[in-house]
Amino acid sequence: MNKTKALVTGATGFSGSHLVDYLLTEDLDVYITTRHRSKTENIEHVRDKVTIVNADIRDGYSLQRVVNEIKPYYIFHLAGQSFVGESWNSPLETLSTNVLGCANMLEAVRLCGNDCKVHIAGSSEEYGFVLESETPITEDNPLRPMSPYGVSKVAQDLLGQQYCRSYGIPVVITRGFNHTGPRRGYVFASTSFARQLVMIKRGKQESVVHVGNLDAQRDYTDARDMARAYWLAITKGKAGEAYNVCSESCIRIGDMLEMLIEMSGVGDVEIRQDPDKMRPSDVPILLGSCAKFRNLTGWEMQYTFEETLRALLDYWEERI
């Protein structure tokens, strides 16, 4: 009996690799897209369990070819420029990759005419400027992005809804709040802190942790819980709808750093602000409500924030 086919873009990245891990537990025939310059260390442990195909989301023809040949029943679209900070340095690259890449993927589905369900991984950064009186953030909150990355994710979100309404393609969008864990790039705060602390512990860095804005408040979920949410969204979500996925709790970035310092056992360290890690504008608070998603799918977190941070430290302990 043939297995149901699932295609994942961005599978070599952080969230994508955790999604692939989860999809394999659902006994799916998993296909992943890579480019010739893709870094593949995140998927080396599953290389013999998936089918790797060459495609670039900025090349519409390559996506059409892949979708037409594979004829997947599920498409999970995660590929793109995923770092908010980098979007300030490369706004045009961020917009062209994320927006045109998403349009290319949706066009590939439309032109190939496949009976295909599509998931688009959006972001809490779409909400942007949020007043404390507007928290916890629901899906009805205004979208006021405060970075080129946030703008690009709003565009992806709206494109998905438009293709659903215009062409009947069953598209579901998740607006994932911050998520972290093993394999996260160390340009992101949680991973940067964990990596620096392990470097200090190993004697490879002076006892100084370089930081950006420590006052921002964020809603963190474990990447493994987020991957399961993506699966529930595409299998149980309503076409054309957007769903928040979040822990429904908030932590100040500086408090997260203190937790990691204590868990790492490095002792006293100097905390030094790095101007290069500061952004022209930063979202002060992202605290979400996932009642809509939880009530529909029954999704619940399986990992505590402490377990996630421990896994993050262990990941860098093994690599440094």
- For this structure, the CATH topology of the largest domain is Rossmann fold
What is the first-to-last residue Cα distance?
45 Å
What portion of residues is helical?
40-55%
Query: Briefly, what CATH class of the largest domain?
Result: Alpha Beta
**How much is the average pLDDT?**
95
C-alpha Rg, in Å?
19 Å
CATH homologous superfamily name of the largest domain? Answer: NAD(P)-binding Rossmann-like Domain
Strand order of the largest sheet: 3-2-1-4-5-6-11
Question: Beta-strand percentage?
Answer: 15-25%
* Number of discrete domains: 2
Largest sheet descriptor:
7 strands, parallel
Alpha-beta classification? alpha/beta
CATH architecture of the largest domain: 3-Layer(aba) Sandwich
Q: Strand tally, please?
A: 13
Low-confidence stretches: none
Q: Give the overall shape.
A: globular
Number of helices: 10
**String of helices and strands:** EHEEHEHHEHEEHEEEHEEHEHH
Structural overview:
- This protein is of the alpha/beta class.
- It has 2 domains: 5-180 and 221-246 and 291-297, NAD(P)-binding Rossmann-like Domain (Rossmann fold, 3-Layer(aba) Sandwich), CATH 3.40.50; 189-217 and 250-286 and 303-319, UDP-galactose 4-epimerase, domain 1 (Alpha-Beta Complex), CATH 3.90.25.
- Helices cover 41% and strands 16% of the residues.
- It has 10 helices and 13 strands.
- It has a 7-stranded parallel sheet with strand order 3-2-1-4-5-6-11, sandwiched between helices. Strands 7-10 form a two-stranded parallel ribbon.
- α8 packs across α10.
- The longest helix has 22 residues, at 91-112.
- The chain is globular, with a radius of gyration of 19 Å.
- The model has no long low-confidence stretch (mean pLDDT 95).
